[in-house]
Design goal:
GO biological process, one term: L-methionine salvage from methylthioadenosine
Number of domains: 1
CATH topology: Jelly Rolls
EC number: 1.13.11.54, 1.13.11.53
CATH superfamily: Jelly Rolls
Cofactor: Fe(2+); Ni(2+)
CATH architecture: Sandwich
Strand content: 25-35%
Membrane topology: Peripheral membrane protein
Protein name: Acireductone dioxygenase
Length: about 190
């Protein structure tokens, strides 16, 4: 099973809607990989014993893990939190999320500053590289259970756009240029 991703329309409608362009413009997984976005599909019902998840954690050094239920019934100030997650930002470290239940959208910017919407569902593990502009929202189901993984102690610091002088952003731009061979302009 491959992850589903597409270029987003420019609509200001509810962010929890799919926001497909007309006609739809599907983004293949290899395009996400060029941007540094990594993906695995695992068995979310067996996450405690999943050998592939353990291998990923050991190989990448993810030694911290917690679980987060995102839904109106379980999150204080739910709408405010969701609005904060949907504010475009970067992190100094990778963002690693494994969807165990439900679904939601990670949006990332490509080298041409277009939004790509990535729909994560149960079983999808996604890694966003440090320095990539992104945001998150739930879809219309308004529920997801996520595993959050970190290297060392968890850091949830978001640096809202613009962050062109942030070391993680500079390193990200450099890595994309090396992969693609085309300059990624500062936005």
């Amino acid at each position: 099973m491959a992850i589903e991703a597409w270029f987003m329309d420019e609509s200001d409608e509810d962010p929890r809607l799919p926001h497909h362009r007309i006609p739809e413009e599907i983004v293949p997984p290899d395009h996400l990989a060029v941007l540094g976005v990594l993906y695995w599909h695992l068995n979310p019902k067996d996450y405690e014993k999943d050998e592939e998840l353990q291998r990923i954690r050991e190989t990448r050094g993810y030694n911290y893990m917690d679980l987060l239920d995102l839904c109106p019934e379980k999150v204080v100030n739910y709408e405010e939190k969701l609005k904060n997650f949907y504010t475009e930002h970067i992190h100094a470290d990778e963002e690693i999320r494994y969807c165990l239940e439900g679904s939601g959208y990670f949006d990332v910017r490509d080298k041409d500053d277009r939004w790509i919407r990535i729909w994560i569902k149960a079983g999808d593990l996604i890694i966003l590289p440090a320095g990539i502009y992104h945001r998150f929202t739930l879809d219309t189901n308004n529920y997801t259970k996520l595993m959050r993984l970190f290297l060392g102690e968890p850091v949830w610091t978001a640096y809202n756009r613009p962050q062109e002088d942030h070391p993680a952003r500079k390193e990200y731009i450099k890595s994309v240029i090396e992969k693609v061979g085309v300059p990624l302009e500062a936005h």
